[in-house]
Amino acid sequence: MEPERRRGVQAPVPKLNWTTIALIGGLLLLILVIAFFATGRNADQDKLTNGALTTAGAPSGEKLCASKTTYDLIKRELFRRAAELRGSDQAAFDKLSAYAALRMENPVMESEDNSTHAVNCSGSLSLDLPPGVAAVGGRRSLMSDVDYVVQPAADGSGTVVMLRNADAIIAPLATLARTTTTAPAQTPGPGAEPVPIPAPGPGEEGTLAPPAATPPSPQPEPSARANPSFNCANARTRGEVAVCRDSGLAALDRQMAAQYGSAMSRADPGQRALLQSTRSRFLGFRDNCRSDSCIADAYRGRMREISDIMAGRWTPPR
Amino acid sequence: MSEPVLRTRDLQRSFVQGDVTIEVLRGVDLDVAPGEIVALLGPSGSGKSTLLQAVGLLEGGFKGSIQLNGEEASALDDDGRTRLRRELLGFVYQFHHLLPEFNAVENVVLPQLVRGAGPDAARTRAEQLLGTLGLAKRLDHRPSKLSGGEQQRVAVARALANKPPLVLADEPTGNLDEHTADIVFAEFVKLVRGEGCAALVATHNERIASRMDRVVRLHEGRLE
User: Model-level pTM?
Assistant: First the structure.
């Protein structure tokens, strides 16, 4: 019995030890590996979370550099300084600025002054001019790398923006002139306020843009005759009614409709489907707008969207 | 004698760096007559560029009097200074500062359009100036496609496009090799004379200075 018992007890021991050791070793190794990676990921996640919380907690410098408010201030400052350089037409430039579109590629915060709360930013600026006007050489779009400082106004009235290195935009912007109109129907009606930007003289179209839409009448006049791409007698939605009341919005509508028609005529089936499927979203956005500037932004965004679809760089909005 | 196109009296400018105040201009009195080409000579750091910045109404912080065509400029606001720059001054810098997105003729057309010229007239004038400077076949080239000498010629044409009474030039050929600098400077002087403009040209080059009507030397913040 004894030997059997001993055998019965002792025999399994070496096997159990070997297996147990292997199992325990493997488990320990697995736990260590998991713990290592789990700990590493958590550290990274903590960093990201802290950064995100910091960003969300207060308007950071990066956000100030890339905010719509900052871009609107930059746009107004560009037109103000262009009018100052030109020495005339300040009121017209103020109005035109509302219809121009500003885009900033790669806005970057360069530095921040904690004592003055001034944020130094830089970016590649593109300014798309409204229909009906063009800068020297017929340009409708002006581009330059710019530096800008965003800081609270000294009197507490909001934010101010100071521009540097913007002469490559300001100087040509100061040359703005009307482009010629194509049809009498596009001439603003008797109630429309003229924009005192000089028109090219007879035979002087050569250095300006090809005939484009009518210059916008940036302050809507209910009596102004607007001619969008659709029949205003059938205008029903808020967006359609607004476009029919404003010659500037009507010009944007015609421009967008012409671009859409041209794009549809040369689009492949995939592009055509995209052009159509994104159209209703644009119309919905436009018709929910509460201001003319919102509608103008919607049109300009739609025109960029059409261009992107045709260029194959369109991505679905998030 | 006709009224000077530029007159400065007791023009002063100082910069504060920490606890130290550096007096760059210590009371400069200078007259430039219409059509006169004056060399502003001085070593690097003598304040030539600071003086040009002042009379070009490009910076504030100066004391004293600056008169352009008889109009006191030192008390003007931004709009007034911009008006005088637009109507009375042309600038040529050491680096051309042409607008890179615009071709040669457009760079020369641009200041004329700002001044209110019609597009056709502005282009004709630009082509004439660039032709005089030997750039008739470079009209449609952007600055990046031009040589250094050609870029500076375009900058000269741009400065003279509106026939300003006074051209301010800060080392206008300082960025060019000696041979090219000689050629461009000779063309600059010829064109300035031909247009009937006056010029104040900052340089540290005695040889170039000797080709002008008069030389004034800036030494320790004062003219000699």
Answer: 0.62
